[in-house]
Amino acid sequence: MKNRLKEFRAINDTTQAELAKKLQVSRQTIIAIEKDKYDPSLKLALKMAKFFQIPVEELFIDDEN
Question: Potential cystine with 32: which of 5, 38, 39, 60 (Cβ 3.0-4.6 Å)?
Answer without folding.
Answer: 38
